[in-house]
């Protein structure tokens, strides 16, 4: 048979390599402590970030489109308003021009009365039609006479109005003259009243000054009499002091019998000091008080010594009790140390038993490598 070069089927190798790559990626995800503990899904997070950016970009483009639409609408609205204003101005201009051309005041029906035949339209009978029945043959024969009488009547009315205005003006001038005269009389009367009031005030001031002078003279006389009375009283007091017991230093003058209880009273304004007997009595009483104070001090000293002795006895007893408690605690601590030492010895024996008898088969490094070697 002939040898033929056939293509090699390597689909099995590709499948094995694909499975190996998937297994490696799976192990990288599973054995990654950060991803396993925190639970991060990077593709999902990146997709969310991309979607968020896309939404923000769409929102920004939408806002830009809205802004552009608002600007366009504002421009269109402003253009429409400007066109409306121009159209309104053009219409007003046309209306004014129409009024000036076709609706003049000179062309109205009463132009002959208002403008005195100035600009009145001259009509002929041949130009009037059936609908223009304004002028008839044979009518208004006395038009000139009637117009002349109207003008005379108007002139008489104007003259009467002018005379009435002049009369009112004269009456107003006469009233103003009367008012001025009344004001002058009133001013003269006010001046006269002011002069009378000033005269009354001057008389009142003179009378008040006289009264004040009389009051001042009376007050000066009263002060003179009061000064003379005080001088007499002071002179009498000086004489009394010179002749009284306060300067003669009479000891009996400082004592007087009291009207009620309490015995004789001392007049402080006349007292000149104590006698020798009184001073000796005070000295004797002070010595007795000093002796009594010394006796009380000695008693207090003895009492303090007794309290100090009692306090010393109590302190000594407390020290003995404290020493007994310390010895008892020391003995308890020694017993506790012995018990703890016995427990430690038993614990060491138990650890040696576990180490030498129970835990004799130690695992090798190969034993730990067989765990977590695959993602399945």
Which short descriptors sum up this protein?
about 375 residues; mainly alpha; two-stranded antiparallel ribbon; 8 helices; 2 strands; flat
Quick summary:
With 376 residues, the chain is mainly α.
What does this 3D model show about the protein?
The chain has a two-stranded antiparallel sheet. It is 76% helix and 1% strand. Among the domains are: 53-94; 162-246; 285-352. It contains 8 helices and 2 strands, in the order H-H-H-H-H-H-E-E-H-H. The protein is flat and about 165 Å long. The model has no long low-confidence stretch (mean pLDDT 81). The protein starts with 10 loop residues before the first helix and ends in a 7-residue tail after the last helix. The chain is mostly helical. A hairpin with an 8-residue loop joins strand 1 and strand 2 (265-266).
